[in-house]
Amino acid sequence: MYVYDEYDQKIVDERVAQYRDQTARFLDGKLTDEQFLPLRLQNGLYVQRLAPMLRIAVPYGLMSSRQLRKIAQLSRDYDKGYVHVSTRQNIQFNWPELAEVPDLLAELASVQMHSIQTSGNCIRNTTTDQYAGVAVDELEDPRPWCEIIRQWSTLHPEFAFLPRKFKIAVCGTAEDRAAIYAHDIGLELVHNAAGEKGFKVLVGGGLGRTPVIGSQICPFLEPQHLLTYLEAILRVYNQHGRRDNKYKARIKILVKAMGVDAFREAVEKEWAVLRDGPSTLTEDEISRARSFFTAPVYQSLDAETVAAALAEQCSSDPVFGNWVKRNTVAHRVPGYRIVNVSLKATGYAPGDITDEQLELVADLADQYSFGELRTTHEQNIVLADVEQGQLYGLWQALQKAGLATANIGYLTDIICCPGGDYCSLANAKSIPVAEAIQARFEDMDYVYDLGPLELNISGCMNACGHHHIGHIGVLGVDKKGQEFYQVSLGGSQGKDASIGKILGPSFKQEDMPDILENLLTTFLSLRQEDEAFIDTYRRVGIDPFKERVYA
Amino acid sequence: MPRLIRNGAIVEDHGPEVLDLEQWLESTERSSRAVVLEPGESLASLLAHIDEIPMVLVNFPTFMDGRGFSYARELRERGYKGEIRAVGHFLRDQLTYLSRCGFNAFEFDDESELEEALPSLADFSEAYQASVDRPQPLFRRRAK
Ligand code: SF4
Question: Cross-referenced InterPro entries, in alphabetical order (chain B) (predicted)?
Answer without folding.
Answer: UCP030820
